[in-house]
TrEMBL record:
Matching InterPro entries: Flag_assembly_chemotaxis_eff, Flagell_FliJ
Main location: membrane
Protein name: Flagellar FliJ protein
Organism from which the protein derives: Piscibacillus halophilus
Localisation per UniProt entry: Cell membrane
Gene3D superfamilies found in the cross-reference section: 1.10.287.1700
Family affiliation: Belongs to the FliJ family.
Record's bilayer topology term: Peripheral membrane protein
Keywords, alphabetical: Bacterial flagellum biogenesis, Bacterial flagellum protein export, Cell membrane, Cell projection, Chemotaxis, Cilium, Coiled coil, Flagellum, Membrane, Protein transport, Transport
GO biological process: bacterial-type flagellum organization; bacterial-type flagellum-dependent cell motility; chemotaxis; protein transport
Amino acid sequence: MNNELRSIDKLLEFKEEQFNQSQAQFKRAMEYFETVGNQLYDLLKTKEKIEKALNDHLKSRIKAYELLNYQQQLDQLKKKENELQMKVHQARMNMQDKEQKRTEAHFEYKKLEKVKENRLIALKKRMKNLENQQLDEVSVQQYVRVNG
């Protein structure tokens, strides 16, 4: 039984390492998601400022080359926005996948911990029963010697 507990301990160490790795991967994925999300947010703020400036200029007189310049900036920002939205989506999916793997690793670790706990309880119970049997045998032998 002692070998069995050592095996479970080794498995627990392995599962704990798996959990720690999945935790680190999830953290990196979450940080990347936040970084890309912040980039998208900043880009949208910039786009909003340019659109506001364009609208302000449209209320007054604006030259054709200025209008063209604004339009080119907005087109470039729209293209970049689409790229960042795709990156944010992929980062979110990756982060959710890493979170699922982390949850599974944690579940496996806890399940194995419970197995170890149950085995320890069973071992203690067996040892107590063995001790009681030995005490019973000693009592019977003493009784036989005294009354025999």
